[in-house]
């Protein structure tokens, strides 16, 4: 009776600690917001210093930093990555749990014995000591793996910030270029309409009218290509922000950026790269593999399981015993898992060295490109300023009848080309700066949640 009560008590204790199950149906409707105003952004909860210290207000237009904040807060891929972090935390929790004891119970009923025979039983609790000895390596590996996933999420958030800034830069540059193209297009259309009237009146040759038509169609082609590209970039930005495809975004003008001090960047390069989340994630993954390798080495020794035995035979004789189970590492000895752990560690070592080498090389390349783009932009600005001066004088001469229409149109077209070059170079320079900041890694608050 005491044995039965003990077994029932252990079973009841195990059931009391069980989790419950509830189904979770899949959604049937789209959940993408139609505007940025529908998304709640809490700056203080964002991971990077630049984002957490910047106010967010979608009503007055989104600047580059606000677009990045919105992306980190609502990007669908980041939401899935955070779910992955939850899985890693659950795995770390599971690794820290102590192994459960095992219980074996048998019951025998005599079927052809004497009148004095009774029912027999065997009550055998046991515990896997080897699983307990390997717990420290499991916990160490799971903890390091959780940190790896955490840092990978942080690096993915930083990449989303970079992509949001790039798309913002491209869209604002395309908007500025589109406005300039529309202005020149209006001028060329007026000139073409005037040339058609002059051609009909016999005051203009067909060659001159055809040249103005060709210039007009060339600008229309640029506008069409630009509108298609801008539409694609708008769709990409909406997808990055987790908005509906037809959501409309009002982007605010971004002030000019200060030039990057290449010498200061190089002086602090080692410190910045040592804090880069992807490199720290590789370090955490390497530590996790070290723990797994250590666990594989420990597992080569004999696996030990101990237990007690309480029994009664059919004659009523009670016994109390002790059991011990020990594996003999003769054929296997966990040598296969040890070999796998060792080669995996070597692979992670080489991967980290390669990523570190690439980081230094990519930063050097970005720093080398910046002076070139800055000098090209300076020269282009100077050329644009000269053309604008000539264009203002030409406009006055054209209104006074001292300049022919074809010459005036050619000058405006040349100014458009130079302005287009300036806008494209400014965009390229901003994108290069964004690329460099991405390579250097984020500026993290001291108590950032992703570096705990």
Q: What does this protein structure show overall?
A:
It holds the Pfam family OEP. Keywords: Coiled coil, Signal. InterPro entries: MdtP/NodT-like, OMP_efflux. Belongs to the outer membrane factor (OMF) (TC 1.B.17) family. This is Transporter. There is one protein chain. The protein has one domain (64-109, 117-247, 258-441): Outer membrane efflux proteins (OEP) (Up-down Bundle), CATH 1.20.1600.10. It is elongated, with a radius of gyration of 36 Å. The mean pLDDT is 86. It has 12 helices and 4 strands, in the order H-H-H-H-E-E-H-H-H-H-H-H-E-E-H-H. It is an alpha+beta fold and 452 residues long. Strand 3 and strand 4 (318-326) form a beta hairpin. The protein has a 4-stranded antiparallel sheet. It has helices spanning 2-16, 49-52, 64-74, 76-96, 129-133, 135-200, 206-241, 262-267, 269-274, 277-298, 335-399, 405-440; strands spanning 102-108, 120-128, 304-312, 318-326. Helix 3 (64-74) crosses helix 6 (135-200) and helix 10 packs antiparallel against helix 11. The two termini are 53 Å apart.
Mean pLDDT: 86
| Major sheet details | 4 strands, antiparallel
Q: Quick one: CATH class?
A: Mainly Alpha
- CATH homologous superfamily (4th level) name: Outer membrane efflux proteins (OEP)
* CATH architecture type: Up-down Bundle
Q: How much beta, percentage-wise? A: 5-15%
Categorize the overall geometry: elongated
Low-confidence stretches: none
Instruction: Order the strands across the largest sheet as they lie in space.
Output: 1-2-3-4
What is the CATH T-level topology?
A: Outer membrane efflux proteins (OEP)
Tell me the number of strands: 4
| Structural class by SSE content | alpha+beta
Distance between the ends: 53 Å
Helices and strands, in order, run as HHHHEEHHHHHHEEHH
């Amino acid at each position: 009776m005491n044995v039965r009560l003990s077994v029932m008590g252990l079973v009841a204790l195990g059931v009391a600690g069980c989790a419950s199950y509830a189904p979770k149906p899949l959604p049937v409707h789209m959940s993408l917001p139609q505007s940025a105003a529908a998304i709640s952004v809490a700056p203080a909860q964002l991971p990077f210093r630049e984002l957490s210290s910047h106010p967010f207000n979608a009503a007055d237009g989104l600047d580059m930093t606000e677009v990045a904040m919105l992306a980190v807060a609502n990007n669908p891929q980041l939401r899935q990555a955070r779910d992955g972090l939850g899985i890693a935390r659950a795995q770390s929790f599971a690794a820290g749990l102590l192994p459960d004891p095992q219980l074996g119970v048998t019951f025998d009923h005599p079927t052809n014995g004497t009148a004095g025979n009774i029912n027999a039983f065997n009550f055998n609790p046991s515990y896997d000591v080897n699983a307990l000895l390997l717990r420290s390596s499991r916990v160490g590996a799971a903890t390091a793996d959780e940190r790896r996933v955490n840092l990978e999420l942080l690096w993915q958030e930083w990449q989303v910030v970079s992509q949001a800034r790039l798309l913002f830069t491209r869209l604002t540059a395309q908007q500025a270029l589109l406005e300039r193209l529309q202005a020149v297009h209006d001028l060329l259309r007026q000139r073409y309409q005037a040339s058609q009237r002059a051609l009909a009146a016999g005051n203009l040759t067909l060659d001159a009218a055809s040249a103005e038509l060709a210039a007009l169609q060339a600008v229309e082609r640029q506008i069409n290509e630009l509108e298609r590209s801008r539409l694609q970039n708008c769709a990409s930005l909406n997808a990055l922000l987790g908005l509906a495809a037809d959501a409309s975004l009002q982007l605010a003008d971004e002030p000019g950026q200060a030039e990057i001090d290449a010498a200061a960047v190089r002086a602090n390069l080692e410190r910045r790269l040592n804090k880069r989340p992807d490199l720290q994630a590789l370090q955490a993954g390497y530590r996790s593999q070290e723990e797994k390798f250590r666990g594989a080495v420990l597992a080569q020794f004999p696996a030990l399981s101990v237990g007690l035995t309480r029994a009664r035979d059919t004659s009523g004789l009670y016994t109390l015993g002790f059991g011990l189970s020990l594996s003999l590492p003769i054929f296997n000895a966990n040598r296969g898992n040890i070999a796998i752990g060792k080669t995996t560690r070597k692979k992670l070592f080489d991967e980290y060295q390669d990523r570190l080498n690439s980081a230094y090389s990519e930063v050097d390349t970005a720093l080398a490109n910046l002076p070139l783009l800055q000098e090209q932009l300076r020269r282009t600005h100077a050329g644009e300023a000269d053309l604008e001066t000539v264009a203002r004088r030409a406009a006055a001469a054209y209104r006074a009848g001292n300049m022919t229409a074809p010459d005036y149109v050619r000058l405006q077209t040349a100014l458009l080309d130079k302005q287009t070059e300036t806008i494209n170079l400014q965009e390229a320079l901003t994108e290069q700066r964004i690329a460099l900041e991405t390579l250097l890694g984020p500026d993290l608050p001291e108590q950032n949640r992703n570096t705990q």
